[in-house]
Amino acid sequence: QKILEKYHDLFRLQWEGVIGNMHAPSQAEWEQLLTNCSAFLFYGMERFMSHVLLSWLVAMNIPKCRLVILLDLVRSRQSYQRITNSDIHKSGLRVALERPTETAMLLSLTGVGSVIATQWYSSLEENAERLETLLENLLSFGKMTGQIVHVLQK
């Protein structure tokens, strides 16, 4: 919340979405957010794809979304329990499709222009630092996404 407020004046368009513990978005909300945005940010627990239905995502056409930033793969005891209970009911192939590379490919196939995603588990604090770096370089310095990825790799 603090990071979004810090960069609020640099956003050219209106920011909308679900922030904090307001509620868990429904599949309809995910669809509305992804289809009506030029950029999408997910900052949350576990894998992004564990929150959306695979069959729903692959059927989508979202070419207006030019950038998806996935700051996921954060684990707590509660989120680990939730994901473990969820994964029991999924095939191995379905769980494999939730990995970062596969998620980026699926989003790309739906029409997303660029995907920036974490590749390994980290803490909320580490992802907050990544988000701060991303927004600073994207909005304050006007860097391109490829340049930002190079900054994040350092």
UniProtKB/TrEMBL annotation:
InterPro entries: CFAP46
Superkingdom of origin organism: Eukaryota
Gene Ontology biological process terms, A to Z: axoneme assembly; cilium movement involved in cell motility
PANTHER family in the cross-refs: CILIA- AND FLAGELLA-ASSOCIATED PROTEIN 46
Name by which UniProt lists this protein: CFA46 protein
Species per Swiss-Prot/TrEMBL record: Tychaedon coryphoeus
